[in-house]
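so my prof wants the structure for this chain in the tokens format not the other one, which i didnt know existed until like an hour ago. anyway here's the sequence
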Amino acid sequence: MAHESTHNRLNSSGFSLVELMVALVFISLLMAGMANVFKSSLNTFYASGETLSSHRRNLMAGEMLYDDLNSAGMYLVDLMSPPSFSATNPPFSITPNQTLNLGITDPNIPVAQNTVNYDILTLYLDQSLPFEGINQDPTAGADEDLLAGTVQTNKVFTIKLKDANQAAQVKPGMKLIFKDSFHAYDIGTVTAAGNLVTITTVDKPQLASGTPTSSGDAATQGHRATAPVVIVTPSQQVRYTVQLKSWDPSDPTKQIPCLVRQQGTYTTTGFVPDPALESVIAENVSGFKVYLSMDPSNTVKTQAEVWGGYQNAATDWAAPGGILSVLNGQISDAGGLGRTGFKLISDANLNWFRDIPVAVRVDITTRTSTARTEYQSAATGRAYRDTTQTLVLVPRHFGLTLN
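here's what i got, hopefully its the right format
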């Protein structure tokens, strides 16, 4: 009997309904806490990734701008005098404080993040191909003498390059420049065979004065049989601006503000971009600003006094208090900096930057691709997080006077 009673108690042992409910409540609380931790970790991961991505975009844009600014004012066709420009389209210009409306209709996102304030940066250069060649003289290695006054139309040169890929980049309309004498020929026709390019020129060479050879030149103008040459696309103009682009194939109406690099051949009437040379430098751009200074290391004056255009709302660089007035004020005060002889910037002095070593500052601001609650300073709503990369340099050809 006693044995049977003990067996029945063992069979009936276990958790009661109340105990199961209590356990379920504790497990639910634990899972909710773990879910919150997981969600917080996931948000932190996404936020960190977006911030790093934004920073990386800034760095890539800064590298492209650095290269272009260092090429600004590079006049390779004529080392002694600048090309002919018009005040309508100067060789270096900044159009400040342009506004781009993003069309954001989400009431949870701050109104201030619905617009992009940006500057338009435009610069001129003679763009050389990123390699050199060697002249292969057809007359068994004899040096070539170009007699003064002799018309050298349809002259043929054979240029040796590194490989066929370089040879394929040489096109009609470019210029062939001999580095030993700086003769510049207009390229008429091009025939490539492996790493060799046969070039037929359009006219006789130009000298450093910018004019073709004539009877008034020296007795001979020549170059070595194996002279190094550079090949140049002349009269190029580059512009940086911000535009809306549709990148989402699932939603063509969704547009993203992008920093765009455009390029075209210079005209005196205005910038004309070549669609084939357009490229997007950075996406999700929330600001692009360009400032100029003749005294960037000054720590006594305010940023607005040091950098022309800083926190200035003018939409014309020549407006009172704008970039031009600040920079001309610094030029007028240059004597106090131990610098003299600089001319004020004006339409009569379009190549001013070749005489004055002016520093350029570029602020590139990109934002996260997603608006999040953790980016918003207010109690409610969502916002984008901005990351700004600052580039400061004195471009290589600024202050490199022509005469």
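also thought this was worth mentioning. The chain has two domains: 46-82+94-125+240-393, 138-225.
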